Amino acid sequence: MPKQPNPESAVQSGAFKAFIAEKGLRATRQRMAVFEAARTIQGHYTAEDLLKKARSLDRSVSRATIYRALPLLVGSNVIREMDVGRDQKYYLAEAGSATFRAQLICENCDSIVEVDAPFMEWYGKAVAAKHGMRPLSQKLQVTASCLNDRCPRRKPARS
Amino acid sequence: MPKQPNPESAVQSGAFKAFIAEKGLRATRQRMAVFEAARTIQGHYTAEDLLKKARSLDRSVSRATIYRALPLLVGSNVIREMDVGRDQKYYLAEAGSATFRAQLICENCDSIVEVDAPFMEWYGKAVAAKHGMRPLSQKLQVTASCLNDRCPRRKPARS
DNA sequence: GTAAGTGCAAAACCTTTGCACGTCG
DNA sequence: CGACGTGCAAAGGTTTTGCACTTAC
């Protein structure tokens, strides 16, 4: 376990610090730990998952801080918030891909797979315009059930 | 205010009673009141809205009964459950149209407009199949904001 | 008669918030 | 230093549940 600094981390951390400063906020120890956790966790995670991971980086992070940091992380495009109809919200490190993505949600094993659906780009604009409204975002989710062993059980397979 | 029986209501009520009997359940006063309320309310409504309406038909209906009846109403296709990312779930009397519908959600005025999107029918099947899964349902929601006075404020305009 | 259904109130659950203390700049 | 951020615990708001009483069949 070498102590070498992670270059990618440094860069990203810098970008987040810039965002923080820009907004007149402070780069606290806890905030940076949550940030690091948020962009590091693989796949979809809940606020509770984020708390665990952040605490592994900085023991002092509290649940309240997690919930207070989440809007900042979403607002700065570090993560994306996702409501898939469960009781908790899910989050996902933003990969930076500009294409629209749908979610394929497995009822059996809780896995969520991100699926590129670039052709959906036009839909929201068309429908909203038709009703004289300004489109903000759209969401396409497919709920399905895995067939026996072909399901990507808890492994968010590549889209 | 004549006391004439409502023929449509009678028919529908009969169908629900059949469903109830079929399942070995009982057609209680409260259950029938909730049923009548659920299929009568116009537009999208919450559990609380349903409680109010049901109580206007039968004062004795309690909140618990509402929540216990909702799964039955959804299961018998009398209503459809909808999660539009707010804190409460929404319900809508099932119109019986077989076509797939998307939801156009206005951020400003809380209105939800059902929009026919028949071309989406194939999508869920295609994506699920591609991942070796059995498609169950899909959901397409567009969040938008009304432009000044052109918004169908609280009036779920015809799709 | 008897098991299913009901009302009430408490519990569960995730998320938000008030407050006093800590700490970044 | 002074305001912003934090931890803690309590509050909030919707939905669920345990329990004793009712009631449909």
Which SSEs are present, and which pair or pack?
The structure is a homodimer of 159-residue chains.
Chain A: H1 7-22, H2 29-40, H3 47-57, H4 63-75, E1 79-82, E2 90-93, E3 101-106, E4 112-116, H5 121-130, E5 133-146
Parallel strand pairs in A: 3-5
Antiparallel strand pairs in A: 1-2, 3-4
Chain A binds a DNA duplex (25 and 25 nucleotides) through residues 24-31, 46-48, 60-65, 67-68, 87-89.
The averaged pLDDT of chain A comes out at 84
Number of helices of chain A: 5
N to C succession of SSEs of chain A: HHHHEEEEHE
Name the assembly state. Answer: homodimer
Tally the structural domains of chain A: 2
Q: Order of strands across the biggest sheet of chain A?
A: 4-3-5
CATH level 1 name of the largest domain in chain A:
Mainly Alpha
Low-pLDDT segments, ≥5 res of chain A: 1-10, 154-159
- State the largest interface: A-B, 34 and 34 residues
Structural class of chain A: alpha+beta
Specify Rg of chain A, calculated over alpha carbons: 18 Å
What is the global morphology of chain A?
Answer: globular
CATH topology of the largest domain in chain A: Arc Repressor Mutant, subunit A
DSSP strand count of chain A = 5
Describe the sheet with the most strands of chain A. 3 strands, mixed
